[in-house]
Amino acid sequence: MKDDTSPDWENAALLTIDVQKSFALPGACAEIPGTWEVIPQIQQLLQAFRQSGKPIIHVVRIYLPDGSNVDLCRRQDIKNGKKVAITGTDGVELVNELKPSPQIILDVNELISGAFQLMNHHEWIMYKPRWGAFYKTSIEKHLLKYSLNTLVVCGCNFPNCPRTTIYEASERDFRVVFIPNATSQVYERGLQELRNIGVNLVNVEECIALVTQTVKTSGKSFH
């Protein structure tokens, strides 16, 4: 580590944000343009982290049909019947391309209670009730349990949930890596603002090389 914000790849976790069917699938009810197109890059990151034995957390939104846990700006739409990431629907699920097995489905009751759902070796799903992954969740405690100090962030809709998560992580003194070419709706001014707060901007290929090289040189994995 060169300074206070450089990534510590030995102690890094990958976060995918909101890559769910409601937001990612072409033609979905709340499709975010560009999300489907970055899924192959997210898959590459997941493969590298899995092979390296490094932790992965898939962060998701789950909406109750009565709108009681929904952001104010979306609550009325959900109460009016819009099926966005609704419990009991296929739209709430992660896209199959991100899962270690397509048979895995979200345990929505466990997730809404605040628990982390184990999917694979050191790979979990967690629920966030608002934009950022740290708001009223136990992700910070979870990361510190495994001595993780660096977060690698990618996923759906940079202006909202990835961006908020990055700022929340930064203000808790986590080192942050953002992967623009594995995230939808990225724009240049936002990237410059991330640079200004010490976020490391790395593309998929660079990230994979750094993760792989760290395991080769340090021998550390979380298997």
Description:
By secondary structure, this protein is α/β, with parallel strands linked by helices. Helices cover 35% and strands 17% of the residues. The relative contact order is 0.21. The protein has helices at 21-24, 35-52, 72-79, 108-112, 139-145, 161-171, 188-196, 204-218; strands spanning 12-17, 56-60, 117-120, 123-127, 150-155, 175-183, 200-201. Helix 2 (35-52) runs parallel beside helix 8. Strand 6 (175-183), helix 7 (188-196) and strand 7 (200-201) form a beta-alpha-beta unit. The protein has a seven-stranded mixed β-sheet with strand order 3-4-2-1-5-6-7. It has one domain (9-216): Rossmann fold, CATH 3.40.50.850.
The CATH class is identified as Alpha Beta
Unreliable spans are: none
Mean pLDDT: 96
CATH topology name, in short, is: Rossmann fold
Structural class: alpha/beta
**Any idea what the shape is?**
globular
Q: At CATH's second level, what is the architecture?
A: 3-Layer(aba) Sandwich
Please bin the fraction of helical residues: 25-40%
| Order of helical and strand elements | EHHEHHEEHEHEHEH
Q: How many domain units?
A: 1
**Strand order, largest beta sheet:** 3-4-2-1-5-6-7
Number of E-state strands: 7
Largest sheet: 7 strands, mixed
Strand content range: 15-25%
